[in-house]
Amino acid sequence: MPDRLLSVLLHDHVGQSSNDREPSGWRAGWAARVSVNALRRKMPVIVVPRYAQASEVPQIAALYHAIWHETHARFMPEQECARRDIAFFHDRMAMLQPATLVVAHDRAIVGFAAWHDDVLSQVFVASARRGTGLASRLMSAAEREMAGHGVSLAKLHCVVGNDRARSFYERHGWAVLEQFVDPKTGRPDGVPFWRMVKHLSNHSSNHRGS
Fold first, then answer.
1. In this structure, which long-range contacts are made by residues 190-193, counting pairs with CB atoms below 8 Å and at least 24 apart in sequence?
2. CA atoms 95, 109, 175, 143: torsion sign
3. Neighbours of 21 (CB within 10 A)
4. pTM for the whole thing?
5. What is the pLDDT of the chain when averaged over all its residues?
């Protein structure tokens, strides 16, 4: 945070003494340090998605592995969950790395979005960052990049039953086109997915946060 902004915020946060003077001596220094730390904790970190670097693939894969098993495993057969070990996610992200956007904080990847051709395939955010609007920013940034590469009608696949994810996509302008069954999931009858679509030609980044 810029020092000038902190000084302005400190003035409002610490306030003035009863005789309209700033605190003096060690009390002023102590109050300033406490106030700066409090402001840094309370103020959200503004992050901007950027393209992933090849060296970040292992970190992205680790985050992908953890979040997928937390949020998606319950919808999948055991065989598919067992197949999706860390090597599986590393190989997938190595392939998708040129079309992957990440957000990093303190050198740690806290969220990413990736696509392949006209399919938005991943939008994942670390649990500690959910509810901050980071997923919305990642999705908007990915949609802009896809549109910039000539995609006018984007698609994504959302497993049936993951109503929270579907609701998030719908709030951002995506709509269910159809339901289909993916046979490559280790279950004889396959796993049902919603195929969702969104027109990107008039894409706007003004969405409700998530």
1. 191/75, 191/76, 191/77, 191/80, 191/159, 191/160, 192/159, 192/160, 193/157, 193/158, 193/159, 193/160
2. negative
3. 9
4. 0.73
5. 80
Q: Are 80 and 59 in contact (CB under 8 A)?
A: no
pLDDT of 143-195, one tens digit each? 999 999 999 999 999 999 999 999 999 999 999 999 999 887 667 778 999 99
| Beta carbons of 31 and 23 less than 8 angstroms apart | yes
Residue partners of 122: CB distance under 8 A and separation at least 6: 64, 96, 100, 112, 113, 114, 115
**CB-based contacts of 117, cutoff 8 Å, min separation 6:** 151
pLDDT digit string, tens, across residues 29-75: 434 443 434 334 444 555 689 999 999 999 999 999 999 999 999 99
**CA 51, CA 145: separation in Å to the nearest integer?**
10
Q: Which residues contact 183 (CB under 8 A, 6 or more apart)?
A: 190
Cβ count within 10 A of residue 25: 7
